[in-house]
Structure formats: C-alpha cells, structure tokens
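Morning - TNX inputs below, output right after.
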Amino acid sequence: MITIFFKKEFLYDIKIFHINYIFFLSCTVIFNNKKENVAIKNNSTIIPEPLEYHQKDGCFKFDSNITFKYDKNNEDIKRVVEKFISQFEKVSGFHFSDSRDNKIINISLVDGNIYGDEGYSIDIDSNKIDISANKWPGIFYAFITLEQMLPAEFFSKEVQKDIDWNVPQVRIFDKPRFKWRGFMLDVSRHFFSVSTIKNFLDYLSLHKINKFHWHLIDDQGWRIEIKKYPKLTEVGAWRVDREDKHWRNREPQKPGEKATYGGYYTQEEIREVIKYAGERNIEVIPEIEMPGHCTSAIASYPWLTCRSDRVYTVPPGSIWPIKDVYCPGKETTFEFLEDVLKEVIELFPSKYIHIGGDEVDKTEWEKCPYCQKRMKEEGLKDVSELQSYFIKRIEKFLNKNGRILIGWDEILEGGLAPNAVVMSWRGVKGGIIAAKEKHYVVMSPTSHCYFDYYQGDPDKEPLAIGGYTTLKKVYSYEPIPKELNEEEAKYVMGAQANLWTEYIPNQKHAEYMTFPRIAALSEVLWSNKESKNWEDFKRRILRMMKIYDLLDINYAKSIFAVDIRSFFDKEQQKILVKMETQSFNPEIYFTLDGSDPDNFSIRYKKPVEIKKTCLIKAVSYLNGKKVSGVSNVEFFYHKALGKKINLKFPYSEKYFANGDFSLVDGFKGSMLYSDSLWQGFWGTDLVATIDLEKISPIKYISINFLQSVGSWIFLPKKIEFFISSNGNDYKRVAVFDNVEVRENFIIKTFEKQLDSEKARFVRIFAKNIEKCPQWHPGAGDKAWLFADEIIVN
Ligand code: TNX
C-alpha cells in the first residue's frame, strides 16, 4: 500500500480542495556597515524590526558603574530586569553597583495607552537609557531589543573578554502589528520533554512570539494527565517503538507487545510550563483534538467510538487518514469530553481552548445507529451538520466556562459555531470566510506557515513531510488577504507557525525546522508591513544566527545553499545560468568540470552562458568561510536550448516552472514535483512544437515525464515525436505506448536515436491520461501531466 497517496499537504498544494478528505554588533561594527547594500535602511541589528528606529551619534558604554532604576515591588519588572543584570554580569564580569556618578538605566511604566499591551520605547544617550512601557510585557520586549543591540556575545554561556559592551545611541518606539504571534508544537507524533518545551519558550520569546499552541492530543499519543481518566495516559500516551522505521512502514502493535515509546505531562508539569511561558509573555493555548485525530483516547476508552467492538492500539505510524472518531451519538462521549475540558480549563488560564476539528472521517457516523438517531432528533441533514452540532455543543460548554473555542478551518463545514475563532490552514480561504462572517481568525496556511515542510533542496535536507517553504517565502507572507476590506481585516488576529512532528523526532531537529524561519515570521507579525525589506532582513538574520550559535540552537543553514537555475535573457536572446543563495552578500564559487568547488574556483558574479553539457557544482562562502554544502546539477547543452516553443494547450498557472522556455532551459526536473522545473498540464495533453530556426541534422530527441501519484501526477498514455522542415508537413519519427504502472515516484525518459534526419521543427505529443484512474483516491478527477526537458541533438 502506497500511503504517500494520502500526503494531504501535496494535495492541498495541488489545490484539490473539493475532495472531501484529501486535504548584530558593537558600535564599531555598526558604523562600518555603511558601505553595504543600498537596500539597507539603517544599521539596526534587531529582529523583528522596530516600528520606529532613529539612530543618533555615539554609543552608550556598559561597565560596572550603572544604576538600574525600577520599581522593585513590581514582580514582573523585577524579574525581567534582574534576569538581564544576571546574564550581563555573567558574560561581562561586571558588578553593577550603585555610586553617585553612575550612568542610569531608567525603567518605568507610564500611564496612557501609546504603547498598548506590548509596546515600549528605548531612548539611549551617552550616559542614560530610558525604557518605558504601559505594561510589563513592553518592558520585557524592550530588554529583548536591548539585548539584540549589544554585541552578540551577550548570549554566551561564559565570560567574554575584550568585548566593548556598547550599544548605539538610538531612539526606538515599538509595538507589534498583530496580537497573535504564534507557534504550534505537535507533541503527539513525537514527545518533547518539559525541558525542551522550556528551551523553545525561551527561544520563541527572543523572537517576541506570544502564543504557544500546544498540540497535546493526536492519534499517536495523548500527552496530558487527566485525573478522572487515568487510562488516557496509562494507555494513550504509549505506542510500540518503531522509531527506526519510516513513518509509513511501521507495523502496528502485535498482541502482547509492550508499548514503550511516548510520555505525557503531569498536571504539575503543565502548570510549570504555563508559568514559565507567562513569565515570557507567552500564552499557552492547549489543543484537545476532537472529534477526529483521537485514536490515543479511543485506545484508552473504546466506548468513545461508534465501534467499541474493535480492539484499538495507539498507532506507531500513520496511514492517513486515520479513521477513528468520537461518537457524537452517545451522551457518554460528551460527558467524557466535558470532564476532560473541565480539567483543562482548571489548568490553563488562556481564554482560548483549541479543539482541533480537522480532518474528520465521518464514514462511521453514517453507519452508526447512535449518530443516526442524533441526526434525526436534532434535524441534521448530513454528517457535516453532525460535526457542526458536535463543535457547537462543545463551544457552548466552553463559553459557559468563560472560554473561547478555536478550531481548524474545517469547523466552518456545516455551519460555524457562534463565537468560534478559526485557524485557517488549508490556505487562507477559511480565514477569509470567517472574517467576513465577523469571526476572529488566526492565519496559518500550509504555504507559508508549515515549518514541517522543506526549507531547501530536499536532496540536501533532512527528511521532511514534503512541501517547500523557504525563509524567503515565510518572509514574503502577508497575513491580511487582499479579499478583506479594512473592517474585515480587523478580525485577523495574526498568524502562527505550525510544527507538526511526524518527521521530527527530537529537540535538535525541531530547532532545525523552526530557526531561522520563525525569525522571518516574527517580523511578518510584529513589524510594519511597509518597513518589510528582504535585503535588510538577510543582513540582520546573519547576526541572529550568531546568537543562535551562542545559544546552541541547531538552526538550519539552508539559506547558504546555492540554487542553480537558468532563464531566458531577452537582451542576449539566450539561456543563461544564474546562481543564488538566500543569504546576504554571498560569495559563490563554481566549477564545470565535476571537481568540488572552493574559494579558488570561478567566482560567480553574474549570470553565465554555458556552452557544453556539464555538471555544475557550486558552494557559498561568507567572510572567507565555507557556509554551504556543494550544490550540483547537470546542465544539458543541446540544439533546442532556449528555442521558441509553441504549446497547443497552455501549461498550468500553478506549475509554470521556468515559464515559456522551461521545457528547453537546460535543466531536468527532479523527483520533487514542485521543484519549479517541471511544467504541469492539468487534464490536457502536451503538444509542444519547437522551432530550431533553421534546418539542421537531428540525431536524437528525448523528453522526461514525472509520475507522483500521491500528487495526482501520472505518466502519459502515449508519446509521439514528429519532425518537419516547413512547419506544415510533419513526419512521425517515434511512437511510445506507455503501460500504466502504479508506482509513486517515477521519472521516465522517452528517447529516440535518428538516422540522417534533417528538420527545423520538432513536435512532441504526449497524451494525458486525463482522469485519475479507478484505483486512485482521486478517481475521476483531472490528472496532471508533468513534463521536463525536451532534448534535441
Ligand atoms: C495536517 S494542519 C494536519 C496534521 C498533520 C499536518 C502535516 C492540520 C489541522 N492537520 O494532522 O500533522 O497536516 O503537515
């Protein structure tokens, strides 16, 4: 069984929504910076970029002669200031002690409401720093900003010698654009200890993230102690250990086999995490998944389902979709859920409780007599309305207890509960609908906010669930969709990154997926839309990486990888090869002879013309240090390279790849359908005619196609090659009948050697299978045909 079928993220990408389920720096450095890129706005080292930043001349020099003035009776402020002092004394060796001639750092809460709940100002002179806010979180964020202005060594774990502990004289006024700046961690698919959670909370607060959405329940593990139902953690928190196997090849638990992988948080630990988060201005929002994604609960108490006759175990892997659901026909189900929620409400002070609501397989409900009875009694016309009944009933309970329900966008189906907040993940459509209905929304579209997706070339990245969400892409995100007017836009509370952990077994890996992408999202959510500047962000992220190094955060260095692409240069009328990274002022070196490049190889300065078939290898350096692995791609120099193509049926707007010259751009598509090399045709054939401009001998024609059945992409049924000298009369020179295979990932080459043929035009015809075959979950829906590189020699 090829479970990849069900990798819904591909499906969402491919937009088949209709299928029901398938779905830095001391002062000196600062002043040295001036020669840098013109796009750089100022010398700020801060992420997220503050709202207003005015640089003055000179620095404030930290030494032991500094007095911190603050209200010692205010516990929150005391904690914030003392933490700063203690870290500073540790790394600098200073002992801040009172004396009459001391420089002053004044920390005060002021009346009025210019700063809001989280804003602050910092005004730095040569002998005084004034920090003001309306509320303590503002002071907390002011110190985070101040820390980022200090030399990065501030974040070190040891004493640092010979550092000028200076900050530039600036005036900052800052407050966030959005009030929901979230991060979700899935602790069910893999369990993360309390100490990991605390580390993450520290790192998140460094980015001014203020919501931690704790995905505590899913099929693969129940992670919260519920006193009334002890089996939830005795049984539901444990699964057989199949960690050595790929997620989709894990056999279920055998009779008598012990379940040893897992864990859960005791209520005491949960309280500890909530307190720790609160001290960092992070609100913890628990997610108690229902009515689907709950096998762990059902394995503990099978009576919660429509089919209590089955033996359930916590699945060690995932065959998506898992069909287990709570039974909304039985009152006992609601009693259980309310009992669980009661304990959750007692534990979590957050006014929001997330109840999931995503990806519910409702087929059991259609058959279940209890559900049918419920539907009849309540006048519900279909199972979608039954889901809506379920969510509304839970909402009533939560509202009665003073809490607000949040759910994934599926809660829109069958009618939205009156006060619900919608988390929009399947794109932004759900968020738009909800905001128009005057419901608050949190945006979390897979396209920009799924940090379980690849952030670089999948060949060089650790195995991930799929997708492709680079740092640049995250940075490009705009949470307010253009479909919303000013009034409606007020319902968008912000956005959130989601870290689903099917492919993320431990803290180090979770860090890799989260950093630096969360820095990009933090700027999207905090800073002014108008001040967003990718070039400047690229500069500042290097400084942030220095901080990550000092904190031992295992951040991804994917931005340094060299991306090798080609494009049609209109002026020169030819295909040129360009090499890029996502990093600031990269030094790129390359070779064309197969040897590994280093900083003695050819330095890349501008797009190059390559006139031979060769392996291009490239690396990037930063300040003379190699910072990337070797990127390599084969470049094909051939007769059709950069020649004009006429397509009878246009390529899809979604998979346009390299545009009009994509099929003759010198590069072949990889196993990744979304590599921007494959050109996609949705339900239509490929009929491509290439004009070689003059009659010339043709000895060889070939074309590649991709099959990726989990993404609705199939090899063509039939392929024909034609040639013509005048563009009217074509001669067929090859025909291939392709036999259907069900394998998921295939790249197939169709090629033909020719004898003494001459022609000006080459035409390739490939017959799309048009509709997904009967054996496929998308049976009857339009099939994709993905083609790349037509080679003519
Ligand atoms: C969708 S987003 C899910 C999760 C998976 C995730 C993988 C959402 C509400 N549901 O169950 O872990 O995709 O990317």
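Note: The pocket of TNX is lined by residues 9, 358-359, 408, 425, 450, 452, 465, 500, 502 (CB under 6 Å).

O.
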